[in-house]
Write a structure and sequence with these properties.
heterodimer, A: 212 residues, mainly alpha
């Protein structure tokens, strides 16, 4: 305590004073977007509904029951819900722009080194606005993934397409073979599942821990 | 070596404790989530390549599916970046909390 009250201008005093100012100004540090229970519950229920939809479609793949026209409403529902998540996320404080955080993470993450690096980083910078939060960018990517799956379902699961086109889109049961293990035979469904899971996980990551 | 002042020691303690926790979390996240998910994406790319080679996929289908894998990888990286922001945020707030305790103790009242 002596250092705080001695009046000598040490570096520690400066840091303490600065942090004290931050606190007096009513600010704790908020670098991420704030946690949103709405987004958390909406994204979680969407993910569960999507997995149920894929599990059901897997059972029917190769038959007329898996044709796109029978699933159109599901896609409309999924895409509408993703749009709501995106709008909610864009309407709350964004924290530090995610692009800047990605640039920092690039120095720490070994998975970011390799031939895919520039393409993946380019993709991130194209998703959402320059200042978007990570949650908004994840919602944008998940929406685009869902639209990609809708387009392929329409193209590959219909009366004029060979049945193999549809079975390779959804693979065969069990569902955890597509979304959980490292051996997915339904690459597009697996990619959509990953993007949805990252959206759900990212929102959970920023959930404040209960005070002990 | 000069004795470390109590205030500095408290702040450094908060900083190092929270940093240790935060970076353990980040390392665990890489091992348990990021690396396995990237392996799943790598496997998917192999499947796409095989199907393109044996004629199961057209070029257009392969292009769409490869783009989806890149987007999946981008999602993993964006979440990871978000996680790092959260850990840095926790470290800074732990320091602020320590400063608050020091100031309140020094003043003998709950000013902050």
């Amino acid at each position: 305590m002596r250092r705080l009250t001695s009046g000598k201008g040490t570096f520690v005093d400066f840091c303490v004073a600065t942090l004290t100012f931050v606190f007096v100004a009513g600010c704790s540090v908020q670098l991420t977007a704030p946690y949103s229970e709405d987004i958390d519950s909406e994204a979680s229920s969407l993910q569960a509904d999507f997995v149920r939809f894929v599990a059901d479609t897997q059972m029917k793949a190769g038959t007329a029951d898996a044709f796109y026209d029978k699933s159109q409403q599901k896609y409309a529902d999924f895409e509408a819900r993703l749009a709501v998540i995106q709008m909610r996320s864009a309407s709350i404080p964004r924290g530090v722009p995610c692009g800047r955080a990605v640039a920092s993470a690039q120095h720490m993450e070994r998975a970011l080194t390799g031939p895919m690096q520039s393409e993946v980083l380019g993709r991130i910078s194209n998703a959402g606005s320059e200042n978007a939060s990570c949650i908004t960018i994840l919602a944008v990517i998940a929406s685009e993934q869902m639209e990609r799956l809708r387009g392929q379902h329409q193209l590959r699961c219909n009366s004029s397409a060979p049945p193999a086109r549809c079975t390779t889109l959804f693979s065969s049961p069990p569902i955890f073979g597509v979304i959980l293990t490292g051996q997915s035979d339904a690459p597009l469904v697996s990619a959509v599942s990953i993007s949805l899971n990252e959206l759900v996980g990212a929102e959970r990551d920023i959930k404040p821990l209960p005070k002990t | 070596m000069a004795p470390v002042p109590d205030a500095l020691q408290t702040i450094l303690g908060a900083l190092t404790n929270q940093s240790r926790i935060s970076f353990q979390n980040v390392v665990a996240d890489i091992d348990q989530h990021v690396a396995p998910t990237m392996a799943l994406i790598a496997h998917s790319l192999t499947v796409i390549g095989g199907r393109l080679a044996d004629g199961t996929y057209t070029n257009d289908i392969a292009d769409v599916e490869v783009q989806a894998q890149l987007d999946a990888a981008a999602s993993v990286i964006v979440r990871f970046a978000n996680r790092i922001l959260k850990e840095i945020q926790d470290i800074l707030n732990a320091v602020i909390e320590a400063v608050r305790d020091i100031v309140n103790t020094a003043l003998g009242i709950s000013l902050l």
